[in-house]
Amino acid sequence: MGDVRARHQDVRYGVRLMAHSRAFTAMVVLSLALGIGAVSTVFALINAIEIRTLPVARPDELVWLKDPSFSYPVFREIRDRGGMFAPACLRGTCAPSPCAGTASRNR
User: Fold this and answer.
1) pTM for this entry
2) Confidence of residue 90 (pLDDT cuts 50, 70, 90)
3) 54 and 105 in contact (C-beta within 8 Å)?
4) Number of other residues whose CB lies within 10 A of the CB of residue 19
């Protein structure tokens, strides 16, 4: 029971100190809010780009080419031929996405 009283007194003392120095308290609360917001935003971006599981039929068969050295017409030919890379999907900024209704996952 004494442990609970000591913690209660510590909390009351902390609240009194925060009430006494309101500018410092406001800066601490603002810093915490900005830090939590920044971390949440970065996590949301990383989650959307890298972590989130995308809806594909067989994710274990996906292949990620980080720096493909072929052009978009060559990619279309690979996709249309089938074989090892069928169905194929391209994700990037240089060409329109031929992935209508499909998605790829980075591995």
Assistant:
1) 0.43
2) low
3) yes
4) 9
